[in-house]
Design brief:
Helix 1 (about 1-15) runs antiparallel to helix 2. This protein has helices at about 1-15, 20-35, 90-95, 100-115, 125-135, 175-180, 200-215, 240-250, 300-305, 335-340, and strands at about 40-45, 80-85, 145-150, 155, 160-170, 185-190, 215-220, 225-230, 235-240, 270, 275. The protein is of the alpha+beta class.
């Protein structure tokens, strides 16, 4: 930290211009922190309106499929970029600190050693974690469990300029500590000014890295035991409000006719859209749903409804084929291979929610 302070002071002394005095220290600190920590970021080109990131099947496109804006400017530079900050190196740094490495294990160990008859305390007590253990995950107390969270954040009170932070919350830390700013892993920020149309294209680098961490990274140093081990990290939960979850799951929003992500009950319109369990008086079609036996969505059904037609699966689909409001992202056709195995399937019954997820 002393060298960083010296860099700032020297940079300030060398600049008479106030603007330069503010900009150069920030750049100097960034460069110095990168040298000290080794943390790098990956720059990915994205739509100038943040519709999508040019990853996976979008990588070879020269314009956005949603708004038709060109990807590059006249100098062949990306008009807008999205920065992804890798996870693995930051976990290595945490385990290289003896105190931090011990903390990443102590909370899980305390839950096992302490008997609790009052119900579920955390994800580690829940049915979902027990299923993960039966599948061979979390055999080591150093294995990391992550909760992913995202949501649109409006930067300014006037106007609308939303950004979407992509956050990983470390479930190995106690609940009172895991959501503190210093413990959050920021993987990137989807730039504004508009909401992403295909959020999966921005998530693809993170999902790819999580797949590698699920297999394991060998040769990671644990300073608390002064030994090498294979680091595993797993995405266990996804959190967000209704609009954010709808984007992540690739379904319509909460104002649509089929907004429920658990069942197939369809709403009706009378001044506004709502979902009655039986037909209202005077409604032309008779229907009635048993609240204890609703027609449930399944994981297979989700993937089928979100997959593009076979003949377009590997083509550069133009927005006019389906219309801009009905484009189905290419990236969804790879979901069975792209998602970590610890992520819950979408076929959980409403009666079991949220207990298995806790």
């Amino acid at each position: 930290m002393g060298s960083i302070r010296c860099t700032i002071m020297l940079t300030l002394d060398d600049n008479d211009d106030k603007t330069g005095a503010l900009i150069k220290p920030a750049l100097a600190v960034t460069c110095r922190l990168r040298e000290i920590s080794g943390i790098e970021h990956i720059t990915i080109s994205c739509c100038v309106n943040s519709c999508l990131a040019f990853t996976a099947d979008y990588k070879g496109l020269d314009e956005c499929l949603f708004c038709n804006e060109p990807r590059f400017d006249q100098r062949k530079h990306p008009r807008q970029t999205f920065d992804y900050i890798p996870i693995t190196h930051r976990l290595r740094l945490q385990f290289a600190n003896a105190k931090r490495a011990a903390k990443l294990q102590d909370y899980r160990k305390s839950l096992v050693s302490t008997q609790w008859a009052g119900g579920i305390r955390d994800y580690w007590d829940g049915m979902l974690h027990q299923e993960h253990k039966q599948q061979g995950f979390f055999r080591d107390y150093r294995d990391i469990g992550f909760l992913f969270s995202t949501d649109g954040v409006q930067l300014f009170k006037i106007g609308k300029f939303d950004i979407w932070p992509l956050l990983l919350i470390n479930l190995n830390l106690p609940p009172s500590e895991r959501v503190k700013k210093e413990n959050l892993l920021l993987c990137g920020i989807i730039p504004g000014k508009r909401n992403p149309k295909d959020i999966h294209s921005f998530l693809r680098p993170m999902i790819d890295e999580l797949k590698e961490l699920e297999v394991g990274i060998a040769g990671v140093y644990d300073a608390s035991t002064k030994s090498l081990f294979t680091l595993h990290a797993h995405l266990c939960l996804v959190s967000g409000d209704l609009p954010a979850i709808a984007k992540v799951m690739g379904i319509s929003g909460h104002n649509s006719y089929e907004y429920c992500r658990f069942c197939k009950v369809r709403g009706i319109y009378r001044g506004h859209i709502y979902c009655p369990l039986q037909s209202p008086f005077g409604w032309p079609d008779d229907f009635e749903f048993d609240p204890m036996n609703l027609p449930l969505r399944t994981d297979q059904g989700y993937r089928h409804s979100m997959s593009p037609p076979f003949e377009y699966a590997n083509s550069q689909l133009h927005p006019l084929i389906f219309g801009q409001r009905h484009i189905i992202p290419f990236i969804l056709k790879n979901l069975p291979m792209a998602l970590p195995n610890t992520l819950p399937c979408m076929n959980s019954k409403p009666s079991t929610f949220p207990d298995p997820l806790l």
